[in-house]
């Protein structure tokens, strides 16, 4: 019995000792003050991320502009076909346009925040690195949400309107054939 | 006294070396020594000059000096005396005869001399220099023609390439524009035309699917929270 208790105690002690460094590593970045070296290294990584974010913004803008052009074409043809529910299609197109403009503005704001973070003085006071980094994280979430808003506008608004337009075209074609 | 020797002493004639001889008109030529023998010799020479013979015959006569061989009849000239003075006189004759023939027989000044005249023993400058200078305009004209052809070919190539590029862009813009074709309907609107789009149910559904797929394919990983997380910024 004594041997069992001793072995259980040793194993438990070894487990506790093994978990100590893991828990301390997880708490280090946020709770301990950031060193000067860590701050400059983080700035370099933020610079790389800023470049990637600018490239992503350009790609997103180009793609959404092309999508909007396609939707405009379909709205024009629906208007020419005297589609009765063309307003729904036009409204869906306008929603995409609004979401695109919001994303463009938000992406610019995020890029500006990242630039400020790179130039901020290392420190935790207002306006210094830690403070601007927190603002950049907030803008990152907002930018991601604005990009998702475009996808939502296309998926939830434009695509259903186009399906309705396609159904109307089918019904119109059937009616014309019956009349003939 | 030998008239040929007198001619040799005569300055204009003796200075008439090949290529540098001054022009002496045989009709008005009056030697300083006006002895009858010299006059007769001069008359004989003039007779030779006025003879309308071919250039080759004249040249042969000039080299062989057949007229000068007749001269010894009136004068007791030793037959052994050479006849170098007659050579300059004979040189003068073909030069003018050649010029007259050249002017009278050819309309264009670019006619080349026959090849036998080049081998006649005269200095090359007399026969070859005009030929070289007169062929230059042809070369310039040929160069101008070739350069004009090159310019025309270049302009044609540029026009063709530009037309192809413009055609491509026009075709591309026509492809992107929606085509609406009028279609005559019967029934409610007899005789009227109603514009119907070329869109069909399938085409619109296809385009809706493409738009949805394209929108969802945008890569938002750059906006992940991990981009600015502590692990990313402060980790190794």
Layout of strands and helices, then pairs:
The complex is a heterodimer of chains A (180) and B (236).
Chain A: H1 2-31, H2 36-80, H3 86-119, H4 129-179
Chain B: H1 3-9, H2 11-14, H3 36-50, H4 55-64, H5 66-70, H6 86-105, H7 115-118, H8 124-134, H9 136-176, E1 180-184, E2 193-197, H10 201-216, H11 230-234
Antiparallel strand pairs in B: 1-2
Describe the structure using short key phrases.
heterodimer, A: 180 residues, mainly alpha, Four Helix Bundle (Hemerythrin (Met), subunit A), B: 236 residues, 11 helices, 2 strands, 58% helix, elongated
Characterise the protein shown here.
The complex is a heterodimer of chains A (180) and B (236). With 180 residues, chain A is an all-alpha fold. Chain A folds into 2 domains: 1-32; 34-179, Up-down Bundle (Four Helix Bundle (Hemerythrin (Met), subunit A)), CATH 1.20.120. Chain A is 89% helix and 0% strand. Chain A has helices spanning 2-31, 36-80, 86-119, 129-179. In chain A, α2 runs antiparallel to α3 (86-119), α2 (36-80) packs parallel to α4 and α3 (86-119) runs antiparallel to α4 (129-179). The termini of chain A are far apart. The model of chain A is unreliable at 24-30 (pLDDT under 50). The relative contact order of chain B is 0.07. In chain B, a hairpin with an 8-residue loop joins β1 and β2 (193-197). Chain B is mainly α and 236 residues long. Chain B contains 11 helices and 2 strands. Chains A and B meet through α2 and α4 of A and β2, α10 and α11 of B.
Concise account of the structure shown:
The complex is a heterodimer of chains A (180) and B (236). By secondary structure, chain A is an all-alpha fold. Helix content of chain A is 89%, strand content 0%.
């Amino acid at each position: 019995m004594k041997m069992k208790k001793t072995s259980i105690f040793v194993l438990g002690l070894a487990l506790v000792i093994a978990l100590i460094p893991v828990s301390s590593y997880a708490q280090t970045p946020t709770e301990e003050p950031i060193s000067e070296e860590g701050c400059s290294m983080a700035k370099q990584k933020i610079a790389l991320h800023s470049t990637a974010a600018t490239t992503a913004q350009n790609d997103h803008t180009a793609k959404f502009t092309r999508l909007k052009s396609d939707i405009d074409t379909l709205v024009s043809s629906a208007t020419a076909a005297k589609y009765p529910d063309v307003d729904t299609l036009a409204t869906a197109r306008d929603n995409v346009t609004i979401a695109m403009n919001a994303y463009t503005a938000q992406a610019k704001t995020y890029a500006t925040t990242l630039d400020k973070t790179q130039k901020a003085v290392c420190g935790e006071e207002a306006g210094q690195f830690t403070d601007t980094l927190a603002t950049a994280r907030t803008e990152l979430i907002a930018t991601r949400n604005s990009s998702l808003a475009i996808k939502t506008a296309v998926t939830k608004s434009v695509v259903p309107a186009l399906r309705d337009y396609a159904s109307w075209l089918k019904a119109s074609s059937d009616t014309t054939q019956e009349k003939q | 006294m030998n008239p040929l020797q007198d001619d040799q002493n005569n300055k204009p004639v003796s200075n008439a070396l090949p290529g540098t001889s001054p022009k002496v008109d045989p009709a008005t030529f009056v030697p300083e020594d006006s002895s009858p023998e010299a006059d007769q010799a001069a008359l004989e020479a003039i007779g030779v000059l006025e003879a309308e013979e071919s250039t080759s015959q004249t040249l042969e006569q000039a080299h062989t000096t057949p007229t000068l061989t007749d001269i010894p009849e009136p004068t007791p000239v030793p037959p052994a005396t050479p006849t170098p003075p007659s050579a300059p006189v004979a040189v003068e004759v073909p030069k003018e005869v050649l010029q007259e023939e050249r002017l009278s027989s050819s309309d264009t000044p670019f006619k080349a001399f026959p090849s036998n005249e080049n081998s006649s023993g005269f200095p090359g400058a007399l026969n070859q220099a005009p030929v070289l200078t007169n062929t230059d305009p042809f070369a310039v004209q040929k160069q101008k023609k070739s350069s004009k052809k090159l310019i025309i070919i270049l302009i044609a190539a540029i026009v063709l390439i530009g037309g192809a590029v413009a055609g491509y862009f026009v075709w591309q813009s026509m492809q992107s524009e929606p085509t609406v074709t009028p279609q005559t309907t019967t029934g409610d609107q007899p005789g009227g035309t109603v514009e119907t789009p070329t869109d069909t149910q399938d085409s619109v559904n296809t385009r809706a699917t493409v738009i949805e797929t394209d929108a969802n394919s945008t890569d938002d990983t750059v906006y992940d929270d991990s981009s600015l997380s502590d692990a990313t910024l402060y980790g190794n």
